[in-house]
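Ops channel
N.P.: pipeline sanity check, posting one input/output pair.
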């Protein structure tokens, strides 16, 4: 599939990976509908990409609210043609030990990452091109590997992976394709200082958003989309975890004191600040 002239609805467009995907697809001639909560960031991105030149536009909307989703519906009704691609890229993270996660934080992660993403997908489906529509959900390697300090975030990404898999099978007798992309740790503002320090001490690799965007573009451009996991040895860990989870249990237990130390410091620093508005990255792990 060529991106030129394709209408792409991208949620989480103000986040690090969202912006990188927008730039990548814009350069390929896609018509972008950029959805996000930050008007300032979206407007700056629109000017950079000269969005109106290809009849694209921004939509300031919080997908975690009914009003935000209705704004998307109104915009889609006004479109003269179907949406070709939906990219679910909105999300928030939460790093910290479960007893230190506030109920409001837990609800926000599940509502934004899971419930809102499912509801947006349901909303967009009737407007999706029946013969060539594609749905790509940006997940995480933590959607297949439970990691200490990220219990709630992992739960949300496991749910997204299951949702994408089930929807793909639900639509398997149609021409609509569904796929899930799982990045490893990515250099975006989702990672607070504690997460960055944890990655550094454990020697975890970290990708740039542009790499994730390039993989997303390749998936969308392929004749048949397939789920993808980014990073080595993360792909190996995910495979081992699905077959011999006890091996991963033992490896992560060795890292637990370090993870707890940074998780405690993260909880303390976040006690007086709100979680990031939009983000798309995770922490990865090297099992040693």
């Amino acid at each position: 599939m060529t991106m030129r002239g394709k209408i792409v609805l991208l949620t989480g467009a103000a986040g690090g990976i969202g912006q990188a995907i927008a730039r990548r697809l814009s350069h390929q001639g896609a018509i972008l509908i950029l959805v996000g909560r930050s008007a300032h960031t979206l407007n700056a991105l629109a000017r950079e990409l000269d969005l109106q030149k290809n009849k694209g536009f921004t939509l300031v909307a919080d997908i975690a609210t009914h009003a935000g989703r209705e704004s998307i519906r109104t915009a889609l009704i006004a479109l003269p043609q179907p949406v070709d691609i939906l990219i679910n890229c909105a999300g928030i993270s939460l790093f910290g030990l479960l007893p230190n996660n506030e109920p409001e934080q837990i609800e926000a992660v599940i509502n934004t990452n899971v419930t809102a993403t499912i509801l947006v997908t349901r909303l967009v489906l009737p407007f999706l091109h029946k013969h060539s529509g594609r749905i790509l959900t940006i997940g995480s390697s933590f959607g297949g590997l439970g990691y200490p300090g990220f219990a709630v975030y992992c739960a949300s990404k496991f749910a997204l992976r299951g949702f994408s898999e089930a929807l793909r099978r639900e639509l398997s007798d149609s021409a609509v394709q569904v796929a899930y992309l799982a990045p490893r740790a990515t250099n975006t503002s989702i990672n607070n200082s504690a997460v960055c320090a944890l990655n550094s001490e454990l020697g975890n690799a970290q990708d740039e958003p542009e790499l994730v965007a390039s993989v997303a573009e390749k998936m969308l451009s392929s004749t048949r989309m397939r789920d993808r996991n980014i990073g080595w040895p993360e792909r190996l860990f995910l495979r081992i975890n699905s077959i011999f989870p006890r091996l991963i249990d033992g490896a992560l237990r060795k890292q637990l004191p370090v993870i707890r130390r940074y998780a405690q410091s993260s909880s303390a620093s976040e006690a007086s600040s709100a979680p990031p508005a939009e983000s798309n990255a995770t922490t990865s792990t090297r099992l040693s």
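N.P.: looks fine end to end. The chain has one domain: 7-270.
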